[in-house]
Write a structure and sequence with these properties.
The protein is mainly alpha-helical. Helix content is 74%, strand content 0%. The chain has one domain: Ferritin, core subunit, four-helix bundle (Ferritin), CATH 1.20.1260. Helix 2 runs antiparallel to helix 3, helix 5 packs across helix 7 and helix 6 packs antiparallel against helix 7.
Amino acid sequence: MLGLKLPTDPRWVNIVEKNIQEILTDHAYCEQKAASTAISLIIGFPEKSELVKEMTALAREEMGHFNMVHDKILKRGWVLGRERKDEYVIQLMKFFPKGGSRDTHLVHKLLYAALIEARSCERFRLLSEEIDDEELSEFYRNLMVSEANHYTMFLKFARKYGNKTEVDKKWDDLLEYEAQLMRDLGKKETMHG
């Protein structure tokens, strides 16, 4: 369903289980960045009323998820750690060339967001099925549904604001590029990389 070309190695869950505090901190910041992305789309493209409406709801939802992850951290007697660089996102954002029209820029931002949400959804599914921590298993099962909805929403908007054939080609190329990234990344106690 997600279209990812390279699934996460299930052994990634073993890394997560040895580093629960790290993954929760990374996850919290991923939720905060997702809210920031929604807000930046509102600021950058205020004339796209349907997008603004959906991004407003998304920003609220993502901050709610941030709060839920933060509560998990506090419940375990920890505090939110400092933000880490997200090597996955840094490398992913190098795919599309800089410049181009405003509409092209929007489509690229939407495709990046769709892919990040798709990978998050895939990782949440894996955690929900494989992690021994029952509380976190249920937590990630519930979040997985939201991430799938976000992925499809971003892809729908990319196809709406761009030429569908071109968008689908860019999407497929981006998926191939992301699979190459995941061959080198995907082995750390981070949500994506």
